[in-house]
Amino acid sequence: MNNRNHNIYFHLHTISGILVCAILYVIFFAGSFSFFKKEIQAWEKGQSYTHANTLAFDYDTLIDSINAQYDLRGRDMELYLQADNYQAYISLTPSKDSLANAAGSEAVSLTYDFAGHRKSTYTESYDLGEFLYRLHFLAQLNAIPLNFAGPFGYVLAGLVSFLFLFALITGLLLHWNKIASNFFVFRPWSKWKTVWTDVHTVLGVIGYPYQFIYAVTGIVLIFNTALLLPFSKLLYKDNPNQLYDAVNNYSNDPFEYQHKPLQEPIDINTIIQKVDREWPATQLTNIQFKNYGDAGMHIVFRGAADPHADFAATGKLVYRVADDTVVFNKPANTDASYIDWVRALAYRLHFGDYGGYPLKIIYFILGIMGCIITASGIMIWLVARDKNTVPAHKRKFNCWAANVFLAVCLTMLPVTAFTFIAVKATHLSGQDSLYSVYFYSWLVLSVYYVVRRNIRRTHAETLLLGSLLGLLVPVVNGIFGGNWLWNTWREGAVDILAVDLLWIAISAIGLVAFVKMKARKPKDVMRRSTAKQMERTANQG
Amino acid sequence: MPANKKYLTKSPFQRFMKITAGFVGGYAVMISAHLALTSVFNKDAVVATAFFSGYILWAILLLCAFLARNAWKIWLIYLALAAVFVLLYLFNR
C-alpha cells in the first residue's frame, strides 16, 4: 500500500478513535443492555409480559383515568406503545380550547401501566431499563444547556457516531492488506502490546459489519436532522410534514379544531378492535388523538408489521370520530415500499427486534465486543507511545488520559450491576433517585481508579467486582421479589429469567477472564526471560 | 507504532482547511449530490436512500480531504462539485 496514505489512515484512525473512545464505550455498553430494555423493566417490576394473554389492553380505562386528572378536552394526546410491554408513554399537548378547558394549559408527560391500570408522571415511572436505554444515546446530557440544532446529548451522540463511522472506514483501509493473513492471528501469551493489537484487529474484523451498521443507523436514529433539515427546507418547502410522514412514518399533522363539542361518545376499545381487524399481524406503535372531544377529533394510528409476517411494512390509518369513518388507510401488514425497506433496515437492524432471543444474544455479544475493541484501542494508543523517544510530558499526558478513560469506562460494569441490585433491594423508583444511584456510584468508583493510577488493577478489579455483583443480581431478585430462577422458569416468565441468566453469564465469563488474567503474569515473565536467554545463546553462538 | 509524522500535514492552517473542507465542504457535496439525484428519482426515495448513502459518502469525502496534498485544491474541488450538483438540481427542477 502507498506509504503516505497508510500513515494518513493510521493517524486519522488514531485521532478519531481517541476522541470518541470513552463515549463510544458508554454507548456500546448501555446500548447492549438496551436490547433487553423490556426484560429489565419486567425484571425490575417483577411483572412478566409473558402473562399478557390474560390481560385485555383496556384503552377506555386509560382514557378515563387520564381524563379525570388532566381533562383531555381540546388537547392532543399521543400514545407511544412498545412491543411486548405493558407500559406505554403518553404525552399531552396544552388544550386548544382555553375557555372550555382552562386547567389544561400545560403539556404533560405520563407513563401508563396497562397491567395495573396505573398512571404516573414520566419522571416517577422512570426505571432502569429506560435509564440504560436513554444513556446509550446520551439523553442525560441534554440537561447541559447548549443547543446547536438539537439537544446537546443527542448532537454529541450523533457526532460520536459519525466519527465512529470515520474511524471504521480508516480502520478498514489501514488493516486492508492484513485482513485475510491476520484473521486467525491471536497471540494471547505474547507481550501486552501484541495482545491488545490482536484483540483490536481480530474482534474489529469479525464485528466489522455489525459495527458499521451501528455507526450509520446510529446517526440516522439520533441525529437525522443533519440530513432531513436541508432536504425539508429545499425539497419540501410547502409541506415539511410530508417528508417526515414519508421517510419516518411519523408526522404531527394538524387537524382543524372546530370549537364544537363532539356529540358522539368515544369508544376507543371498539375502534382499536376495528383497526386490529383491518391490520392483522401488526404491532401498533403509535396512536395520536387529535382535538380530543371536539367535532374535529381524529385518531391517527401507526403500526408496523410483525417482523415474521413482513420485515419492512408500516402503515397509517386516520379515523374520524364524528362520523365513524376511516379517512385514510395504508395497511401496516403488507405492501412494503422501497422507503419502508430502507427505514426498516435502519430501525430493525439497530433495535435487533426481528429474531427473538437468539438474535438478541448475538447482538449483545457483538455489542460488548464493541466495548472491548474500544478499550483495547485505548491500550494500544497508550503502549504504542510508551517509549523513550516520546518526550516525558507527552508520556505523562498519555498515561493520564488512558487512566481516566479506562477508569470511567471499565467501572460501568460494577456500577450497572450495583444499580440492578439497588433498585431491586430498595424498590427505589423515579428519575432522580436512579440518577443519584448510578451517577454517584459511577463517579466515586471512577475517581477511585483515577487516583489509584494503576490500569492493570482497574482492569482486574472492575472485572472481579462487576462479576461478583453480577452474581448477586439473581439472588437479590429472589430475596426481594420472590423471583428465584426456578420460580420464573416454572412460571415461564422468560423475560425476568433472561435478565438473571444474562448476569450469570456475564459474571461467569468475567470470573474466568479474571482468573486467566491473574494466571497469565508468570507466564509472561517466563516467556520474556526465555526469549532473552535464547537471544543471548543466539548471539554467543 | 504511531503514524510516521513525515507523511502528515504539518502546517496547522493547512490542517484546519482540510478539516473544514472535509466536514463542511464534504457535507455540501453530499447534500447537493442527493439533490441532483432527485431530478432523476423520486425525492422521497432519494431522501430515504440518503440515510445510508449520505452519511457514508460524507465520511468518505472527509477522508478524501485528508488524502489531498493541498487544502486549497480540495476546497476548490468540493465547491466545484457542489456547484455542478446544485446546477443540475436547479435545471431539472
Description:
- The complex is a heterodimer of chains A (541) and B (93).
- Chain A has 541 residues and is an alpha+beta fold.
- Helices cover 61% and strands 9% of the residues of chain A.
- Chain A has an eight-stranded antiparallel sheet with strand order 4-3-2-1-5-6-7-8.
- In chain A, β6 (298-305) and β7 form a beta hairpin.
- The longest helix of chain A is centred in the C-terminal third of the chain and has 47 residues, at 494-540.
- Mean pLDDT of chain A is 89; it is low at 522-527.
- With 93 residues, chain B is mainly alpha-helical.
- Helix content of chain B is 77%, strand content 0%.
- Chain B is elongated and about 50 Å long.
- Chain A binds chain B through residues 3-5, 7-12, 14, 162, 165-166, 169-170, 193, 216-217, 219-220, 224, 226-228, 230-231, 234-236, 243, 246-247, 338-339, 342-343, 345-346, 380, 384-385, and chain B through 1-4, 6-8, 27, 31, 34-35, 38, 43-45, 47-52, 54-56, 58-60, 62-63, 66-67.
Residue stretches of chain B low in confidence (pLDDT < 50, at least 5 long) are: none
Report strand order across the widest sheet of chain A. Answer: 4-3-2-1-5-6-7-8
Structural class of chain A: alpha+beta
State mean pLDDT of chain A (0 to 100 scale): 89
- Which strand-content bin applies to the residues of chain B? under 5%
Average pLDDT of chain B works out at: 93
Query: What percentage of residues of chain A falls in helices of 4 or more residues?
Result: 55-70%
> Radius of gyration of chain B, rounded?
15 Å
Low-confidence stretches of chain A: 522-527
| Count of runs of 4 or more consecutive helical residues of chain A | 19
Of all chain pairs, the largest interface belongs to: A-B, 41 and 31 residues
- Cα(first) to Cα(last) distance of chain A is 38 Å
Task: Please tally the β strands of chain A and state the result.
Answer: 8
Give the CA-based shape of chain B: elongated
Report the helical percentage of chain B.
Answer: over 70%
